[in-house]
Amino acid sequence: MSDWRRVFLFTWIVSLCLRLAWVLTVPVFGDEAFYAWEARHLAWAYSDLPGLTAWLIAAGTSVFGKSLLGLRVGALLLALVLPWILLHIADTLGRSDVRYQTGVLATLLPLLLGNGVLALPEPSLLLAAMLCLWGGLRLLQQRTVAALGIFAVGLVLGAFSHYRFALVLVAGAIGMLASAQGRDLLRWPPFWWALAMGAAAWLPLWLVNADQSGAGLRFQLLDRHPWVWHWDGLWYPLVQAVVTTPWVWFGLWLATIKGRWRDPEPKQRLLLAAALIPMLGYGLLGMFADNERVSFHWPLIGYLAALPLFARQLADVSKQWRVATWSSLSLGALLVSLWMTALGSADGRAILGRLGTVVDNFSGWTEVAGWVQTAIAGADPAPRLIADNFMLAAQLGWASPESQTVWVLDHPLNHKHGRAAQLLSWGVDEETLQQMPAAESLLVIEETALKLKDRLAWQHRLCDRFPGLQWIDDAQVNHGHKRFLMFHWWPEAVGDCEFPPLLYVERHRGERDDAWRLHGWAIADGAGVQSVALVQGDHVLAQAHYGSLLEGVKAQWPYSTDPSHPHVGFELVPPDGLSLENADLRLRVTTRGARQRDFPL
């Protein structure tokens, strides 16, 4: 057994163990929960996505139950197959000498190490793209039934994976048509049968779009993209260098650029098209397209195609270059491993949240689901469960019994993420809810899903929809970084709505004594604010002077029903020597109804 084969098998087995551990510990991601919701309404396609991700989840949960393993096992298996496909691609290219190096790269690349841990479309999309590349390369070499079958399976899997597979088709078409051997395939009838199968696999998605007035296409092509230049797009190459490690990112580009398009070898042209078009296309797209959602993984399809070229280049460079490359890759893999491991624990997520890393869509769901189930336990009949946005509803649905219907209000987040049309098609949206007979309801609101400036208007909208709505509890996760509210509503409710206080605070130093001061505003529509205090645990450290006039607040929310509005400003002087960086410090707002709510500094 060669040394590189041993290295590949070792890294693949270690990655399997790591991924399995993460599968069993990392909380359900927000989008995962929605795909699991889709798996309970199996269809060929949905407004946001083709059907394969939901089918994999349905298959996994049918075997392993409603568990993290059941949710993710399908994606995990597809991801584990991917490095082995890269070995075969290297062989087909005539680079068997670097086949295992290619496999190691496909296992350790930081963006790929976590592939398959979450039940997302990416594992099937990447596998489909590499199957198409492998099958296409083999067809250019020799027209066999096996090669055609691999190619056709890739086309079908890709069409059932994601809209983004369309760019793979563009890259493949350019690569195939760039050589005489590729063009000759168009004269071979079985090749057209494979293309027809791939085209037919898109039909369910087109039918769903036709039924929903093009909601999915409109979101993917128009709604989510500004299609104007934005300067933060210039950071996109830097982000790519970070998530692939700088040395490897530079090496991937160098290897691809050094690949000769004019090489008469047709397989070389197909490989370059499969690598360069996604790498360049998504790089340019990042400067004009969606900059509010995660897109750093988009060029990964191109990086995968470039790995055999990169492995060949590594074999020819100096020892120092190879050491630097493998060291960079190992460090990147280690950092990803630490990050994924931290995600698997509540303390780790809290630390990552304080550091500002992306953990919001992992955090709070388990806690809020348990909180809600406790609130409705023993109720007979159980109150109607209503969430304010699709992601919270999906997480509550994942944690609730199958018989529990979760309704969803018309929230900006539903439209921002292209899920409103799917909720409507299931009949769990607000429009359908309004047509139902009124019933006792429990409303769960993710307060931090909206910006502070939008929360008061949202409260008033809730009151218009549910007159007499009463705030009963709140829950805070990651030191208050995420906050959830619970409301109770009865059809016969009368009187004003009761809402929790809202607070805004800033720090500044005094001009004379250079001491820190806290100032801002606190509003409690309906009840009004009695006091604002700085507390540590249950110990009051300082009381604020509350009631100053704030014209800006008056202009921002002229409709506020706080009895003191617009005299809602406060200023607080902390005790001497107190560090405001103490994570245990809170600002406590007490309403005139003696309700209290704590806010982190």
Concise overview:
The chain is an alpha+beta fold and 601 residues long. It is 53% helix and 13% strand.
Share of helical residues: 40-55%
Structurally, the number of domains stands at: 3
Shape designation:
globular
Biggest β-sheet strands, sense, barrel: 5 strands, mixed
**Average pLDDT for all residues:** 90
Q: How far apart, in Å, are the first and last alpha carbons?
A: 59 Å
Structural class: alpha+beta
Q: Kindly provide the radius of gyration, computed on alpha-carbon positions and rounded to a whole number of angstroms.
A: 28 Å
Number of E strands: 13
Count of DSSP H/I helices: 26
* Residue share in β-strands: 5-15%
Unreliable stretches, pLDDT < 50, 5 or more residues? none
Strand order in the sheet with the most strands: 2-1-3-5-4
Verbal overview:
The mean pLDDT is 90. Helix 7 (122-141) packs antiparallel against helix 16 and helix 16 crosses helix 17. The strands form three sheets. A five-stranded mixed β-sheet has the order 2-1-3-5-4, with helices on one face. 53% of the residues lie in helices and 13% in strands. It is of the alpha+beta class.
Give keywords.
26 helices, 601 residues, Rossmann fold, four-stranded antiparallel β-sheet, five-stranded mixed β-sheet, Immunoglobulin-like, alpha+beta
Topology:
Blueprint (H helix, E strand, L loop, with lengths): L2 H23 L4 H10 L12 H13 L3 H25 L6 H10 L1 H4 L8 H20 L3 H15 L5 H13 L2 H5 L4 H12 L2 H9 L3 H9 L12 H9 L1 H13 L7 H20 L14 H17 L2 H25 L2 H10 L9 H12 L7 E4 L2 H10 L6 E3 L3 H5 L3 H7 L3 H5 L6 E6 L5 H14 L4 E8 L4 E8 L12 E8 L6 E8 L5 E8 L2 E5 L1 E4 L2 H6 L12 E4 L12 E7 L4 E5 L1
Helix pairs in contact: 1-4, 1-5, 1-18, 2-3, 2-21, 3-4, 4-5, 4-7, 5-17, 7-8, 7-9, 7-16, 7-17, 8-11, 9-16, 14-15, 15-17, 15-18, 16-17, 18-19, 20-21
